[in-house]
Amino acid sequence: MNKQPNITGGGRNWEWLKVEYEAVIGLEVHVELKTNAKAFCSCTTAFGGEPNTHVCPVCLGLPGVLPVINRRVVEFGLKTALALNCQVASFCKFDRKNYYYPDLPKNYQISQYDLPLARGGYLTINVDGKERVIGITRVHMEEDAGKLIHVDSPDGGYSLVDYNRTGVPLLEIVSEPDLRSPAEARAYMEKLRTILQYLDVSDCKMEEGSLRCDANVSVRPRGSQTFGTKTEVKNLNSFRSLQRALEYEIERQIAILESGGRVEQATMAWDESRNVTYVMRTKEEAQDYRYFPDPDLVPLEIDAAWIERVRRELPELPDARCRRLIEDYGLPAYDAGVITSSRDLADYFDRVVALYPDAKTVSNWLMGDFLRLLNAADLEPRQSPVPPEELASLLQLQKDGTISGKIAKQVLEEMFASGKGARQIVEEKGLVQISDEAALTRIVEEVLAANPSVVEDYRNGKEKALGYLVGQVMKATKGKANPSLVNRLLKERL
Ligand SMILES: Nc1ncnc2c1ncn2[C@@H]1O[C@H](COP(=O)(O)OP(=O)(O)OP(=O)(O)O)[C@@H](O)[C@H]1O
Ligand SMILES: [Mg+2]
Ligand SMILES: [Mg+2]
């Protein structure tokens, strides 16, 4: 590497340089499939477990054993390939990718090389209101490796190996170099996760490693038609680190080119604590892996009937569902995008709207307080302590005037915390809205008497003074006064 960029200091105008250069990005994504059994044996794929308890002679690569492909792996692969608009191969085979590493007991990984399961697909992303189609080069099946645990000790340290993950089925999904910014790379990754979640083929947890991503990136002068030399960045454990690592790596490459140097092809790692990429190894070539067809596994012939059955059974996918929310409910595109970004949230939305058909109000509540409370508790919509029926009855209580909007927010928090129903909380806490005109008139008059200068301001044309007076009445009634009635009563007296 020629030169490390001085990104935090040095006074270089990076924003300006980024106008002169364009980034080219392609992602290689690995997805752990949530089949019950591993790819080529019947061991469980369960995450965690005592080290080296989810193993057998096949996934440990002991002599004299033969792998057998798990039909569900192919099925999940087909689902994914079709959802990504790929062409499925009628004939494909498994190859051995040979390399030595302690987490790989066979010294080769079963993968697919020149005849992958599927090719030539795409997905669409939306960044800053701009829709882009991103090509997908291929989808292939392979197996995961084990996990190394490095232990520090005074006499130099040692490594432990856990083979529980060895042989867990993976799909590798390789994109075309169609992405042009870190934000687009992140949007692609998020969209891919959404699609995989709709298909229910993976847990898609980046922190647990069931969804992983290597980012290939190069830069070139804007307007150039040829690609620059790429580096591949690994160790990206979240969407945030994907985006930040790419930002860093793009700036590093620009700095090299600006100083007259050349980017060297390399595999880099992202250092999460120092916010930098560093060279892991200069790039190996495909021939270094000595790929050859795995003689233990028969090639796969996937007949058209199987492909058609899987295609018919595909669930409604995020883009289609998003369009449906816009067309059927008149939701704004933004709302529909947020709601359908999670299948779980979209299902929740459907169930609330079935009971409370004002879709826009439901979407406001979901995108606002509901998601805020869920995120704070680190829960998925399906784990919400507030079931859809209860959210619908809360909205109904607000609509029929039993409680004010302000109180409704308070009640939702209570519902989350206690798991109690909306009606029960409103009754127990005496939160029913005060719509009794006589009672409110008394309070309104007290507020007016106590604030003569504000009243004066309002009469001199200061409209905002009214809001203050409404606020005082709400305060006196602990938020329970009917706001429209308060407004009317105040105006009548001003
Ligand atoms: N010049 C480039 N700049 C940025 N990305 C590129 C460039 N050329 C190729 N890519 C992207 O790099 C990725 C290459 O992945 P692929 O798995 O085909 O090859 P590899 O990285 O050599 O192999 P592996 O990592 O599996 O051993 C693709 O996503 C592709 O779009
Ligand atoms: Mg690859
Ligand atoms: Mg690669």
From TrEMBL:
Annotated SMART domains: GatB_Yqey
Enzyme class: ligase
Catalytically driven reaction(s): L-aspartyl-tRNA(Asn) + L-glutamine + ATP + H2O = L-asparaginyl-tRNA(Asn) + L-glutamate + ADP + phosphate + 2 H(+); L-glutamyl-tRNA(Gln) + L-glutamine + ATP + H2O = L-glutaminyl-tRNA(Gln) + L-glutamate + ADP + phosphate + H(+)
Keywords: ATP-binding, Ligase, Nucleotide-binding, Protein biosynthesis, Transferase
Gene Ontology biological process terms, A to Z: glutaminyl-tRNAGln biosynthesis via transamidation; translation
GO molecular function terms noted in the UniProt entry: asparaginyl-tRNA synthase (glutamine-hydrolyzing) activity; ATP binding; glutaminyl-tRNA synthase (glutamine-hydrolyzing) activity; transferase activity
Keyword Metal-binding on entry: no
Record family assignment: Belongs to the GatB/GatE family. GatB subfamily.
Role according to the record: Allows the formation of correctly charged Asn-tRNA(Asn) or Gln-tRNA(Gln) through the transamidation of misacylated Asp-tRNA(Asn) or Glu-tRNA(Gln) in organisms which lack either or both of asparaginyl-tRNA or glutaminyl-tRNA synthetases. The reaction takes place in the presence of glutamine and ATP through an activated phospho-Asp-tRNA(Asn) or phospho-Glu-tRNA(Gln).
PANTHER family listed in its UniProt record: GLUTAMYL-TRNA GLN AMIDOTRANSFERASE SUBUNIT B MITOCHONDRIAL AND PROKARYOTIC PET112-RELATED, GLUTAMYL-TRNA(GLN) AMIDOTRANSFERASE SUBUNIT B, MITOCHONDRIAL
Name of the molecule in the record: Aspartyl/glutamyl-tRNA(Asn/Gln) amidotransferase subunit B
UniProt source species: Neomoorella humiferrea
Gene name for this UniProt entry: gatB
